[in-house]
Amino acid sequence: MFSTFPREVDISVKCFLGDGSDDRPFVVGVTTKSLLRSANRDPASVILHVDATFQLDQVSYPVIVCGLSDGSRRFHLLALFLTSQLEEAHFFSAFAALRAMFAQVTGEQLSVRYVMGDADSAQFNAMRSVFRIDCTYTYLIQERMRGLHGDIVAMVNRDIYDLHISFTEDEYFTRKKEVLFQWNKRPELDTFRMYMEKQWLSRNSSNWQCYLTPSGFATTNNPSPPSTGDISSYDCFLREHVHDRCSINFLIDGTSDEVVRVLAAQPPRFYIPSRGRSDEALDVAAQFSVSYARMEVNSQSSTGWPVNLTAEYCPCRYHAKMNCRVDWNFALHVRSHGDGTGEKLMVNRSRKRRNHAEINRREPGRPMNAGHALQKD
């Protein structure tokens, strides 16, 4: 059953609704008890998503969507807010009302550790004011490279993904210095470089690196759950690497039963346009796939990735970013410990029986050792 709640109540415990003006803002939330109770989780295991959508009503009031995403990249709706504007006061009223309603239904305080939203100072300040914590904010970088040459766009995309997939602060600052140095040598990137330095590489909007986000969680406001079919489709990119017996790498760690060497090889990519999508959207989607596929082979040695079957760990950057055990599933499949989806196989305890082929291999005629038992030694 849906329930609505306002941003505040008056002395007579009546709902206070404004008219949408600057002096009397309008903020109303919609949620259910089951949605609020499902959000009662460990704050380190979920990400709070905040996004706004427009053109849903006749008076052009925006709707703020609040929800959670878990490690499986499933989105769980938390509440909807209809508000007259998107100023800091409106965000503050919405977040405060959500926190009060959550405490009233569950009896506990709503704790937030990771937040994903727009690069908006009003939203950022309201979140910090309501929850009073130094929560980590992550953002989706929007492309502003229209009119640039395709090679330059591809280079900038690679640099942005390299900055994003940084797992330590020192690694990020080192790559940031190198990227800005390369961008500074190209005059056509002056406007874009100044925009990135001001908007995404400093201040509140600079927290979009992997070391600030839990592994395996969604990094956009459109989280989509991975399916077993997507994981199985990666099998064509993986190959088992067999070492020579004289190889130093084989002598070091190739004899361990817990470690399987898996060589990730990138096949030739080809471009297939689809219906219902613009050329610009197709180009962005292709760049997204190429950048993440590059993480599977980045820093990979000639002997492949050492996949530890016991620890379920692979040192590749794709595993650290997505927490997706593609290499581990493939290694289990090679060792006959798992199927194509990564599920472990049951132990086969049946006795080995002779098949009909072995029986038919006997020489025709009477067996030479046939005879009475007392006649044998």
Could you please describe the fold and organization of this structure?
With 377 residues, the chain is α+β, with helices and mostly antiparallel strands. It folds into three domains: 3-138, no CATH class; 150-199, no CATH class; 228-334, no CATH class. The protein contains twelve helices and ten strands. A seven-stranded mixed beta sheet has the order 1-2-5-4-3-6-7. It is flat. It starts with a strand and ends in a 17-residue tail after the last helix.
Strand order of the largest sheet: 1-2-5-4-3-6-7
Report the order of strands and helices. Answer: EEHEEEHEHEHHHHEHEHEHHH
Number of strands: 10
Percentage beta strand: 5-15%
Q: Percent of residues in helical segments?
A: 25-40%
SSE arrangement:
Blueprint: E1 3-6, E2 27-31, H1 33-38, E3 47-53, E4 63-69, E5 75-83, H2 88-106, E6 114-116, H3 121-131, E7 136-138, H4 150-164, H5 169-184, H6 190-199, H7 228-232, E8 238-240, H8 248-254, E9 259-264, H9 279-297, E10 305-308, H10 317-322, H11 326-334, H12 356-360
Parallel strand pairs: 3-6, 6-7
Antiparallel strand pairs: 1-2, 2-5, 3-4, 4-5, 8-9, 9-10
Helix pairs in contact: 2-3, 4-5
Produce a short descriptive summary.
The protein has 377 residues and is α+β, with helices and mostly antiparallel strands. It has twelve helices and ten strands.
